[in-house]
Design a protein that fits this description.
Strand order of the largest sheet: 1-2-4-3-5-6-9-10
CATH architecture: 3-Layer(aba) Sandwich
Order of helices and strands: HEEEHEHEHEHHHHHEEHEHEHH
Number of helices: 13
Shape: globular
Structural class: alpha/beta
CATH class: Alpha Beta
Distance between the termini: 61 Å
CATH superfamily: Alpha/Beta hydrolase fold, catalytic domain
Length: about 325
């Protein structure tokens, strides 16, 4: 009886995985891309992480935020050439297994996860591109293991300075109501409202993204896993002490760093992010007029050209 139940559960998981793969594949194909897939195992904390790979040349590792797993960089990757692009599904996203964020300080844990990912991929040194909270992962890796990081690209705002308040949706995830929210499957109107709240005008983000996000909500447990992470990094009053890099920590990050910020991104302002990049020894700010939080969706050509030029050094 137990074996039969386990087999049935495994079949359900496999069916969900295949439905998710189908939706994600359609999203990649919408952008004219067909990445290769590989899985890597990390030990501390233990996880099996998925990486999707495109191109050849100097390696660039992409770390997603809360807008989607690694594939959400597709519009940007379509604009880039001449590099080996490694799009990571952050733990608990896409087809990567979740991790327990309560076992170590968040900055230490995330830096070690990325270091181990580079080790498993056989990559000694890479440029790192983050999105949203993925920016924090990128900075913490550069801080903890500077020899492993060539350059940094930070796309959209994130918890990188004490001037940024916790976004309402992230506060909601932490609350008791968040336990209900993560069990409600998304519908297209809901995703479009979320995109509008992130500063994206109607039509800026393709329908293919909306369809993929709805499938992701139904066929993966990303929202529950992200809530677990949020509850590990938030107190009722805001981000837990030590999560946001201090000024001295930023001053110690010596890698060339480019931040692209859209003026419609609700997190911060041009002035906030100019002050932030000024605290980095080699920081640059690219302002995208009218761009939302997923800034590469609003003007992928411009953002892609700027990022490619920066990565080329």
């Amino acid at each position: 009886m137990v074996a039969s139940g386990n087999a049935q559960a495994g079949t359900r998981v496999d069916a969900r995985t295949e439905r998710y793969r189908h939706a994600e594949r359609a999203f990649w194909e919408h952008h004219g891309l067909t990445p290769a897939e590989r899985f890597v195992d990390v030990a501390s904390p233990a996880a099996r992480l998925r990486v999707q790979e495109l191109g050849s040349g100097a390696p660039v590792l992409f770390v997603n935020g809360t807008g989607g797993p690694g594939a959400y960089f597709a519009p940007l990757l379509r604009e880039l050439q001449g590099f080996r692009y490694l799009a990571l599904d952050r733990p608990g996203w896409g087809l990567s297994t979740p991790v327990d964020y309560a076992g170590a300080a968040y900055g230490t844990l995330t830096a070690e996860l990325l270091r181990q990912t580079l080790d498993a991929l056989g990559v000694e040194r890479a440029s790192i591109v983050g999105g949203s909270i993925g920016n924090l992962w990128a900075l913490r890796l550069a801080q903890a293991h500077p020899s492993r990081v060539e350059r940094l690209v930070l796309l959209g705002a994130g918890p990188l300075t004490s001037e940024i308040r916790v976004p309402p949706f992230i506060r909601l995830l932490r609350s008791p109501l968040g336990g209900i929210v993560v069990r409600v499957p998304e519908r297209p109107p809901m995703v479009r409202r979320q995109l509008a709240g992130l500063g994206h005008a109607a039509g800026r983000v393709p329908t293919a993204f909306v369809d993929w996000h709805v499938a992701m909500s139904r066929e993966t447990d990303w929202a529950r896993h992200e809530r677990d992470m949020v509850r590990a990094i938030l107190d009722p009053g805001g981000y837990r002490p030590g999560l946001v890099p201090a000024g001295a920590e930023l001053a110690g990050i010596g890698q060339p760093t480019l931040m692209a910020y859209g003026t419609a991104d609700p997190l911060g302002s041009v002035e906030v992010w100019r002050r932030f990049t000024d605290r980095l020894p080699h920081g640059e700010l690219e302002v995208v007029d009218g761009g939302g939080h997923l800034v590469w969706y609003d003007d992928p050509g411009r953002v892609g050209t700027r990022v490619a030029r920066f990565l080329a050094g």
